[in-house]
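lol ok so funny story. i was supposed to be doing the assay writeup but got distracted and ended up predicting the structure for this chain instead. priorities right. anyway since i did it might as well share w the group, maybe its usefull for someone
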Amino acid sequence: MKNTIRFSKFFLPAAIISLILVALSISGYIINKGFALGVDFQAGLIQEIKIAPTAFSFSWNGVSNAVLQLDRNGLYIIVSGAGVEPKTYSFPFSEYATIGSIKRAAEQALEDIVIEMPANENINSQWLFLSSQGNPLLNKDTPYVIHYLDPQSAPVDISEVRNAMANYTQGVAVQNIGTPSERHFMIRIEDKEEGRVRSDEVIQNLESNFGKGGIAVMRSDYVGSSQSKKLIDQVFYLIPLTLILILVYLVIRFKLQYAIGGVIAILHDLLVIMAYLVWARMEFNTTTIAAILTILGYSINNTIILFDRIRENMRVYPDNGFTDIMDISITGILGRTIITTVTTMIAVLFLFIFTTGAMKDFALVLLIGMTSGTYTSLFIASGFVNFWEDVKKNRAKKKAAI
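and the output, tada:
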């Protein structure tokens, strides 16, 4: 008891600080006219690319059908059609180690095939991969392109891709997929007028910076305005639903005052994160939503641990006042809270330091949210429950006096 820290002395100052933070959050939202919505919440083009040179392209001049397939073991051309016996021509990488050897063997086996090979013929055939561009059903009008990526190729930094997309006046977001040496990126481009942004124009723009034939499109999707609006609606339904479910859970597990205190605490965390987002103009995207939901779960977990300790100490110290029990409980979990928070924050800090793009933003929001979550558990949730109990106690005294 003598080592108990009187946290209750800081409940009122903490409440004043929190009101200021809430005011900053709301005013920032109004002044800045909402969040800086990312292209996840806007109509636009989403394109996944690899910066990789063209190995060779295939065309077919025959009357039969020819389909090209590629896997980790080899390249295959399946010939079929009316009056032609179906046959698969296999070119296993174990036998054809270079793209030059594949080209020569394919041209010798198939007289109707046309192969253009701008790359060095000594390129390792195991470096080959397919993109989503073109049609594997070969024809004479549109060559089917196969790319390659040398594991020893110079890494491409995300800033180079962003610079290549700088001539677009609308919102553009670029994310790394994997490491820089994999040269794999996700590009999202806002399109306020549907159909204005075209995939082929984006490829041409990138090829002007990274070389003709040097862009492999792995995936290309277009999100319409109705889809983006639906996504926004889902987000703003998701967070209130989360709060309601937490409220119901806390009412069942504890009492109403604990439930309201817990929800106020996570609402406070939400508003603190919102204040940072609107004033820093950080892009609000699906990664941000993931960070916010993570913080809500982290914060309420810490609050529940505190509420459990309060309930336990009410049985241990039945003669003590509620404020004393509150101070004892917070002091009791302080060491555990500090160790857990600091350990987690160290991991998130390394994530912030050593990553880039959306992952760096994710880590930053987590750091802010974890700091706020610890503060709200110790001062806001507990402060509200203490205030509720004081009001209930005063009302009981008044009724007894009457």
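The first strand starts at residue 36 and ends at 37. The CA atoms of residues 184 and 265 lie 40 Å apart.
back to the writeup now i swear
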